[in-house]
Design brief:
Blueprint (H helix, E strand, L loop, with lengths): L9 E9 L2 E9 L3 E12 L16 E12 L4 E11 L3 H7 L6 E8 L2 E9 L4 E8 L3 E9 L3 H9 L3 E3 L2 E9 L5
Antiparallel strand pairs: 1-2, 2-3, 3-4, 4-5, 5-6, 6-7, 7-8, 8-9, 9-11, 10-11
């Protein structure tokens, strides 16, 4: 690859303005390490390597604000991360069942060298919480959901979540897909 001939680093203030991705921030990259500061953006959920399973609206917007991100790309080691994520991706599910779906609010952090997104949301009609742990080959996800409405609980089951008492639970691994 000709990029192997490049030495040094790229340090730039970037902005993107596309129908499914917009944002700006400072990025520094040296081929093995990525650092981002004061990044804010919005992107369609469909741009992320996340399966909707019929619960999340793939056209929903995800808002991201990173004050800091420092990743060692060789082993996908997270050295520092501080950020917030927000989405109304459950709104379509709520509308389908005539209930109020929560807005998911979350944080990006590092845990044991991994980049981790934890998120949760709650209304009187449904409660969702979960996390995504990003690694070099993909990401692992876990979700817990509850609802007092039988039809919504049925939707949780149809989406592949398993019932454990009054809580529906799901977990899995999604491999990286270079075509996204």
């Amino acid at each position: 690859s000709p990029l192997g001939l490049v030495t040094g680093h790229i340090d730039a203030r970037l902005s993107a303005d596309d129908p499914s991705l917009r944002g700006e921030g400072r990025i520094r990259w040296n081929g093995r390490r990525l650092r981002a500061h004061e990044v804010s953006g919005a992107l369609a959920l469909s741009r992320l390597p996340v399966e909707s399973n019929g619960l999340l609206d793939p056209d929903a917007t995800v808002f991201v604000r990173l004050s800091e991100l420092d990743l060692d790309l060789d082993g996908m080691e997270c050295r520092a991360a501080a950020g917030q994520v927000s989405t109304a991706a459950l709104t379509g599910l709520g509308r389908s069942y005539g209930v109020e779906a929560p807005r998911l609010e979350g944080e990006l952090t590092c845990r044991d060298g991994a980049l981790v997104l934890t998120a949760a949301g709650e209304t009187g009609d449904m409660r969702i919480e979960g996390e995504i742990v990003f690694g070099a080959t993909g990401h692992d996800w876990t979700v817990f959901a509850t609802s007092p409405h039988a039809a919504v609980r049925e939707a949780f089951g149809l989406a592949g979540l398993a019932r454990e008492g009054d809580v529906w639970h799901g977990s899995g691994h999604e491999s990286l897909d270079a075509s996204r």
